[in-house]
Design a protein that fits this description.
By secondary structure, the chain is an alpha+beta fold. It is 40% helix and 17% strand. It contains 27 helices and 28 strands. The longest helix has 29 residues, at 282-310. The protein starts with a helix and ends in an 8-residue tail after the last strand.
Length: 713
């Protein structure tokens, strides 16, 4: 501005200039100063970055001019991105300055719906037409009919809801109506649904408005009414019909997922209520659990996690509790699992008589051949159904699933150390605590001992995972003891936290795979959900004799055979001497001190994880020329899956599984709601049957086939 005025033709050496409303008319009238109008064109012509791009006259209103001066640097910077600058382009830049120079049309529409900028002010600056045109170009939404955007979010939802419900609601909401076409209402509502995370406060507000209302048919417009309808009809969950494409809040999605999963679990539990193993051999039983029964535990855990999430939705959760639906599912689950496990434990010795095709836990490191670059992850408490989620969701080209059963009792001291013991023993001391000994000396530095023994068994160098991460060009074996799952099941009783630990394991595996290392994922034992059964005998036992779901007793002390089995063979390296270990009959459990427990004999504890993840060229993967075709991703992820009956289909995004089903038809149409995900969010579709795996990735509004030579997901 100073340069501009100093270069003007004048014989005066002083000038007054200001963006404020200073009245200098008196000075002009007395000829003490001369008035000079500084036009936008004059200012622009002195701006080095843009002066050669100007075209035509630049006429602004007084308010527009003020806006220009107040946002001068931002407007000049914005204009410099244009090849030619006209008055129309300047006004568009002023519009961006009014709404926020960095804001996109999406940001502007969100602010408009929230009422965060004034329509009247925009019209005062003569910029409203530019804003409406920008939104129409970007979203085909016409806001020009809207005269007042205060409480617009509520007005849109209430007007649309009342148009759907007809005369079922009285006039109390008449002040919340907005007079625009239903077509435009639906367009704005669809935008709200696709960007629901930006409207948390507004969603809470409208939910409070309808919290005490009820409807007699399902609606997806007001979240609170959808949730109330489902809660009121929860006992009839088998007949719940939910259109997942219309769900638009996290709470609605969680409730729909809850209904879907309890339906699936209900059907599975009814299917397996009288289940019997085909053959009483450990190999067949492991196969049956891995192919069928694991899903019961998986669904029950996922439902438990959803219940934890839904417990923060007080109005919904209190009705679920009073309906006794969770209690019903719990009773069905424990009945089926207990019946299956009671058959398992009653024939345990006979089942282990034939171990063909399977390996005992302490044979794994000695019998399996590993590459020189292998990361061994020993995950404490990693139940097989948890690890199964990782089989198709990592970057590995191949996953080898070894059939392994654990030693008993399923305690870390026995099962984890069992991988490494050669000439050591586990001795039970006077307090019934297991001590690792060699000769007559107690080994106290257990982690160091395990690392040294792993190196001896593999006959190669091993380093810790932390050292591996800080060593760029390392070649050799790596060990990692991962304890988060076991810590979680004992400390938090939280299914959600268990799932979070699985996500971390996936990150670790992918890191190793990306460095072209094999990953051997092993667990020491699984865990089981328990309920209280034994009361009388349990209260008579000394505390030191209780070890989770088994007892350590003097060999001559009697135990109630209805509740306990004392004839099961424990790990070879356990020195019992004058004591015996009595395992609880799996239709009962000791006094419940935690929701998840281990130490006993059950499928969940004894069938353990032994997965070998291998990097490579992904030569075993099929391409989109196989079963998966016609991928689309907008508000719904769609695909056609042909000739894949019997395949397992999973959909993942951001490391989490969002959908799973068994394909039961040759012409399966995949439909997964993805409305709540942003543009360019990537999804992985994976189908698997035996050794056949096909994967395909798709971004919202675009898709990519997984290359045979490079799994890009």
């Amino acid at each position: 501005m100073q340069n501009l005025i100093s270069n003007l033709p004048t014989n005066k050496i002083n000038a007054i200039y200001s963006k404020f409303d200073i009245d200098i008319s008196g000075l002009v009238a007395t000829n003490r100063v001369k008035s000079l109008v500084i036009t936008p064109g004059m200012i622009l012509s002195y701006s080095e970055n843009i002066k050669n791009k100007l075209a035509g006259a630049f006429n602004l209103t007084k308010d527009q001019y003020k806006l220009f001066i107040e946002n001068f640097d931002a407007v000049i910077s914005d204009l410099s991105n244009n090849e030619v600058i006209t008055c129309e382009i300047l006004k568009k830049s002023l519009t961006r300055a009014f709404t926020g120079i960095e804001k996109t049309p999406k940001d502007i529409l969100i602010d408009f719906i929230k009422g965060d900028f004034s329509i009247a002010k925009a019209k005062e600056f003569y910029l409203y037409d530019g804003i409406t045109q920008s939104l129409k170009d970007s979203y085909n939404i016409n806001i020009s009919e809207i005269e007042d955007n205060s409480n617009l979010f509520e007005k849109i939802l209430v007007t649309l809801f009342l148009s759907e419900q007809g005369n079922n609601f009285d006039a109390e909401f008449s002040d919340d109506l907005i007079n625009i076409s239903i077509e435009e209402l639906r367009k704005i509502f669809n935008f709200i649904r696709e960007n629901s995370t930006y409207f948390d406060k507004e969603i809470q507000g409208i939910n409070k408005k309808f919290i005490n209302k009820a409807i007699n048919r399902i609606s997806y417009i007001i979240p609170a009414l959808f949730e109330k309808f489902i809660a009121d009809n929860i006992q009839d969950y088998n007949h719940a019909m939910i259109d997942r494409t219309q769900l638009w809040t996290n709470s609605m999605c969680n409730i729909a997922e809850f209904i879907t999963k309890i339906n699936l679990l209900d059907k599975l539990l009814k299917q397996y209520v009288s289940y019997s193993f085909h053959t009483n051999t450990i190999g067949i039983i492991i196969k049956e659990y891995k192919e069928k029964l694991w899903e019961i535990d998986n669904l029950y855990r996922e439902i438990s996690g959803l219940c934890e999430e839904l417990s923060y939705n007080y109005e919904f959760y209190i009705k679920i509790e009073s309906s006794k639906v969770i209690e019903k599912i719990d009773n069905m689950y424990f009945n089926v699992i207990s019946n299956i496990n009671s058959k398992y434990i009653s024939c345990y010795n006979d089942i282990l008589a034939d171990k063909s095709g399977v390996q005992r836990q302490d044979e794994v490191l000695k019998n399996i051949k590993f590459s020189k670059n292998t990361v061994f992850i020993f995950a404490d408490g990693l139940r097989y159904e948890l690890a199964k989620e990782l089989k198709n969701s990592t970057n590995s080209a191949e996953v080898i699933d070894h059939d392994v059963f654990s030693l008993i009792p399923t305690e870390t001291e026995i099962c984890m150390n069992g991988y490494f013991i050669t000439d050591e023993k586990l001795r039970i001391n006077s307090k019934n605590v297991f001590e690792l000994i060699k000769g007559d000396k107690t080994i106290n530095q257990i982690i160091k001992w395990r690392a040294e023994k792993l190196s001896k068994i593999l006959k190669c160098q091993v380093i810790s995972f932390e050292e591996f991460k800080s060593t760029y060009d390392y070649s050799g074996c790596v060990f990692c003891f991962y304890n988060d799952i076991d810590n979680t099941i004992h400390s938090y009783n939280s299914a959600q936290k268990i799932s979070a630990a699985i996500c971390e394991l996936k990150t670790m595996i992918n890191y190793c795979i990306d460095r072209k290392f094999d990953v051997m994922l092993l667990s020491d034992h699984g865990f089981i959900d328990v309920e209280t059964k034994i009361e009388v005998q349990d209260s008579e036992l000394d505390t030191e004799k209780k070890k989770g779901r088994y007892l350590v007793l003097p060999s001559n002390e009697k135990v109630d055979t209805m509740f306990y089995k004392s004839d099961l063979k424990v790990a070879d390296f356990v020195e019992l001497k004058n004591k015996k270990i009595c395992f609880i009959n799996s239709i009962n459990s000791l006094r419940r001190t935690t929701r998840f427990t281990h130490g006993g004999v059950s499928l969940q504890e004894n069938i353990i994880t032994a997965l070998l993840f291998k990097p490579g060229s992904n030569s075993g993967l099929l391409t989109n020329e196989g079963h998966i075709s016609n991928l689309k991703a907008f508000n719904e992820l769609r695909a056609e899956i042909n000739n894949a009956e019997g395949f397992e289909c999973n959909v993942y995004t951001g490391g989490q599984k969002i959908f799973m089903t068994m394909i039961d038809t040759d012409d399966y149409k995949l439909r997964v709601p993805i409305r709540n995900y942003g543009k360019d969010q990537e999804f992985l579709i994976s189908i698997k049957h035996g050794s056949i795996i096909e994967k395909c990735t798709i971004k919202k509004s675009s898709n990519t086939v997984v290359d045979k030579e490079l799994d890009i997901f």
